[in-house]
Design goal:
Mean pLDDT: 78
Order of helices and strands: HHHHHHHHHHHHH
Distance between the termini: 20 Å
Helix content: over 70%
Shape: globular
Radius of gyration: 20 Å
Structural class: mainly alpha
Number of domains: 1
Amino acid sequence: MISGFIGLAIVVLTTLWLADSELVSQAFDEILAEDSRVDWVLLALSWVMVPVAFYFLGCRWRALIPPPHTASGAGLAAIMGAGLLMNTALPGPVGEFGAAWFAHKRYKIPLPVSLASGVGARLIGVWMAAAAAILIWALADLPVPEGWDLAIAGVAWLIGAAGVGLGLLAFKPMWVKSLSTRTLSRFTGPGRVSRMAQKTDAMVAQVTEAQASLRGGSIRSTMACFGWSLIAHITVLIGIGIAMWSVGAEPSVPGVVFTYAATTAGVIVMFALPGSQVGWDVLFLTLLVKTAGLETPDALLVAVIVRVQQLSVMVAGAIVMSWLLKSTQASSSEE
């Protein structure tokens, strides 16, 4: 019952945000116009790539769940979609903790194991995106307009710093916990800054302890997680590329890869803010124009198409997750 109300509230919040967005309204007007330049077959194909990518993300999470526990890749994908929908409306790692709890309830995975494997898989995926963004920025010839070199370099360096932090969090979690204890935990007192520092320190402690619990996992499971993550990233990139072709855009391929990788890694930087997906949209739109060579109208259409595709799959994930939980509760009652 509670999960149903939470899911309904999230869907309502995101729907209101979409309805109030002038950017979305303008894009829909162009897409639905009689003389629309959108290729609907390509657009539908790009839409199909999103749930396929989510399935691979579910397999990525499943790869880190240690035996004897197991779960369905499709079921975990639905849970991930619902978790990401939570992060659209609420600040911080609400989605990760919520997804871990849902997986615990559905598949009887101990909550610490569910949290550790889910967060670990997410960290590996974002770390891979950060590494890809740095490599593309360093090696490829991006069509950056004059005067934007410094700004794009700043984005790359920020993503690189985030990648280093994610690497430490994933592979040396207790180092991160020790650093947090020596800095954030020293903020004491009744002020807002102190309360925020204490909450952040507590969150870091939970995540790092969860990651430390995975250190006994096999190399095979870690490599499987990397493999599924790579397949998911490639699938998303293909979907974004098809969406661009559906509106007649002709982007720079390295620029598209950099845009996707940088915005994927940039989610961590915007993690603690409510409505952080709006910041993601702005960064995605800007980088499409400044590094992928798209004209602003084309970039606007692509950004809206990608956001609506993601939200549709997230809402579908929330619906499927609700059904999974109801079936689980029914089975428990019969037992």
